[in-house]
Design the sequence.
């Protein structure tokens, strides 16, 4: 959780001092104190960020005759770099081979991908 306008949280010590000096306001009563705290928290605009469950990245790998030499040489390094940079185990990396036609290899070349 973070606050979009955290400067409003500075009102809390100010309200405590006002309640101390002006006891007649009875800001120490639970309902009044709770209302003021909720008002200040509302002004501070709390924001909650929900994390995604996981992300899928689909990588197209050119397996045509013209690119075969380049892909075969660097393919394992690409897989290792993508797998090493993942922050979450819920993110998936899928490789799809294509040349004359597209071929998806489920479960054979599936690894993890970092995402955002």
Sequence:
């Amino acid at each position: 959780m973070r606050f979009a306008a955290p400067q409003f949280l500075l009102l809390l010590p100010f309200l405590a001092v006002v309640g101390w000096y002006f006891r007649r306001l009875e800001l120490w009563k639970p309902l009044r104190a709770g209302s003021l705290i909720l008002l200040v928290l509302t002004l501070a605009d709390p924001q909650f960020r929900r994390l995604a469950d996981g992300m899928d990245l689909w990588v197209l790998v050119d397996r045509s005759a013209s690119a075969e030499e380049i892909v075969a040489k660097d393919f394992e390094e690409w897989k290792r770099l993508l797998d090493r940079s993942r922050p979450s185990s819920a993110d998936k990396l899928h490789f799809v081979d294509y040349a004359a036609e597209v071929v998806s290899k489920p479960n054979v070349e599936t690894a993890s991908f970092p995402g955002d």
Summary: The longest helix spans residues 68-84.
